Amino acid sequence: MSEPNRNEQNNERPAAEREKNRDRGEQNARNAQNPQNAQNAQNAQNARQGQNAQGGNRKNQKNRDRERSRENREKDRERDRERREKENRKKQPPKLQPHPNAGNANKKKAQKGNRADDGRKDTYVYVLDGNVYINLTNKCSNACHFCVRNERASYFGNYLWLRNGDPTPEKVIAALNALDLSAYREVVFCGFGEPTYRMAEMSAVADYVHERGLSTRLNTNGQGSLINKRDIVPELKGKIDKINISLNAASAEKYQPICRSQFGEAGYTGMLDFARECRRAEIECWFSVVDVIGEDEVAACRRVAEMIGIPLRVRAYISES
Ligand code: SF4
Predict the structure, then answer these.
(1) What is the DSSP letter of 243?
(2) CB 305 within 8 A of CB 249
(3) Which residues is 134 bridged to in the sheet?
(4) CB neighbours of 252 closer than 8 A, spacing ≥ 6?
(5) 96-127 pLDDT, tens per residue?
(6) Residue 140: what are its φ and ψ, rounded to 5°?
């Protein structure tokens, strides 16, 4: 048998392939005409597009998550910083500055009157506007420009500068008993100084006042915890029924030039901390300001009071004595 001619073989193969291709082309044309196949192709195309869109959404979501966690981290850092600042203020009471009243000409003049050798006795207890007031000390961590003791020796006829030292509780109680206490409802710790310098004495007198059926109030500059280097609010709870905290200004920057705290601007922030603690301890308390600071500043003080969560009372400036 002879071998097939190579030329014949080559001619036969392309013919077979052409046949196959023609069949495939016809099949494709039929497929394209078939609506089900067209739908399948469209679905496949849509799926590919959907996958691409999903990929884009996932990317956007990731970016949003990243942004959100960055904002959360910043907020956490801010909260940490505020907490650390508050703790530091508590841990390290600020260095005392020289008292601004040293060398104050007005105060020297007033003190001259206070120290005049006229034989009068120190005033521990006095009556004003139907209330009983207790004068425990001359000491104060502030040197307010508007303080009456800078300007005059007497307050509504009461000579409050203590020339013979701070009184013991026994001396105060003896002075209280000289009054008909049944005519009064409230005893107020408020004099020519800051009463929280005398925590133990104030506490003993407050107990006596309660025994006699009267309520107690403390008028304070709010720096008692700085003065005593401890949180005094738990000691006040149950002894003092109401606390009036002098706010005087809406910020530390404004407070310090007016009140000249020995603690510097920390005197103001310490006062706000004290107010917060009083509120937490559920002692009835409020801020007070004098109306001479002007309407805008009173409105700003009101916002501070709202932030701390206690009321603000605006009182008229007392110009006569
Ligand atoms: S806090 Fe009161 S007592 Fe002290 S300086 Fe100011 S007004 Fe005077």
Answers:
(1) E
(2) no
(3) 125, 189
(4) 265, 266, 267, 268, 269
(5) 443 334 344 555 666 566 666 567 889 999 99
(6) -150, 145
Q: Is the Cβ atom of 147 under 6 angstroms away from ligand 1?
A: yes
State phi, psi for 50 to the nearest 5 degrees.
-60, -40
Residues 137, 198: contact at Cβ < 8 Å?
Answer: yes
Q: Are 190 and 137 in contact (CB under 8 A)?
A: no
Contact 270, 226 (CB under 8 A): yes
Query: Rg of the Cα trace of the chain?
Result: 42
Atom of ligand 1 nearest to the CA of 221: 1
Nearest CA to ligand 1 atom 3: 193
Looking at the whole model, is its pTM more than 0.70?
no
Pocket of ligand 1 contains residue 194 by CB under 6 Å: yes
Amino acid occupying residue 253: E
Domains present along the chain, CATH in parentheses: 1-61 (no CATH), 108-315 (3.20.20.70)
Q: What sign has the CA pseudo-torsion 94, 98, 104, 109?
A: positive
- The more confident residue out of 288 and 100 is 288
Phi, psi (rounded to 5 degrees) for 315 = -120, 155
Of the residues 114, 134, 149, which should be mutated to test ligand 1's pocket, given the most ligand atoms within 8 Å of the CB?
149
d(CA 81, CA 230) in angstroms, rounded, equals 22
DSSP-assigned letter for residue 182: G
Q: What's 219's DSSP letter?
A: E
